[in-house]
């Protein structure tokens, strides 16, 4: 389990790095903050970081972990770095961009909504929410609320959040990077569901039959 001090350091450091890379890619502070939509985007990044710190969660392997799935974390990390840097870089140079400030504001709204959906399960599960594919101490199956409709709301939030970031910079590159997230995300979901079936058996099988993974009636 991470101590509150270490979690705070990681959240603050990660937020500063995230915004710094985007600002550098865009051409500097003056250029970045000359765009009202990007000012709003930066404010939302900070607010989501604060909310994420307060939500809890951990990166503990718990009582049992699928270690073979850790490669997904590397894939997520590489795609995240590309996603942070490439859309603002392309936007500032008008390379593979979509037209109009409306696109930017749609992106800001999706970024905020996706971030909220991503954090919602962390608030529901608290420290039982792990960055690893693992069974935590006192793990129980949660099937109410948003989990009564989709089984992996946090991953849906990740996709919407990523798409929002791409559109805030009008970036076709960013949209393609969001699509690329589907590959490691599918592998992660498969690994999680195998582990949960092994832990909860027929209870989880019944839960799977009445819910969708990410999008009701589609997936």
UniProtKB/TrEMBL annotation:
Pfam family, one: PEMT
GO molecular function, one term: methyltransferase activity
Keyword entries, A-Z: Membrane, Methyltransferase, Transferase, Transmembrane, Transmembrane helix
Biological-process GO terms, alphabetical: methylation
CC terms in the record's Gene Ontology section: endomembrane system
Topology term for the membrane: Multi-pass membrane protein
Major localization class: membrane
Transmembrane annotation, as ranges: 6-26, 38-59, 71-90, 102-123, 163-185
Annotated InterPro entries: Metal_cation-efflux_comp (IPR052527), Phopholipid_MeTrfase (IPR007318)
Compartments, record wording: Endomembrane system
Source organism, top-level taxon: Bacteria
UniProt protein name: Isoprenylcysteine carboxyl methyltransferase
Taxonomic classification: Bacteria, Pseudomonadati, Pseudomonadota, Alphaproteobacteria, Acetobacterales
């Amino acid at each position: 389990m991470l101590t509150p001090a270490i979690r705070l350091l990681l959240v603050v450091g990660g937020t500063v790095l995230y915004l710094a890379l985007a600002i550098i890619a865009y051409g500097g502070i003056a250029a970045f903050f000359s765009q009202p939509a990007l000012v709003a985007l930066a404010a939302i990044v900070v607010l989501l970081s604060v909310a994420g710190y307060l939500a809890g969660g951990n990166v503990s392997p718990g009582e049992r972990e699928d270690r073979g799935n850790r490669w997904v974390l590397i894939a997520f990390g590489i795609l995240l770095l590309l996603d942070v840097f490439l859309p603002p870089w392309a936007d500032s140079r008008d390379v593979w961009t979509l037209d109009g400030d409306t696109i930017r504001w749609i992106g800001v709204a999706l970024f905020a909504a996706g971030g909220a959906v991503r954090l919602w399960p962390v608030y529901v599960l608290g420290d039982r929410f792990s960055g690893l594919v693992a069974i935590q101490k006192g793990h129980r199956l949660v099937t109410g609320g948003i989990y009564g409709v989709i089984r992996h709301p946090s991953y849906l939030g990740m996709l919407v959040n990523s798409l929002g970031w791409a559109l805030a910079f009008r970036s076709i590159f960013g949209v393609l990077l969001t699509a690329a997230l589907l590959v490691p995300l599918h592998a992660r979901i498969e690994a999680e569901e195998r582990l949960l079936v092994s832990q909860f058996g027929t209870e989880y099988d019944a839960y799977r039959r009445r819910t969708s993974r990410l999008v009701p009636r589609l997936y």
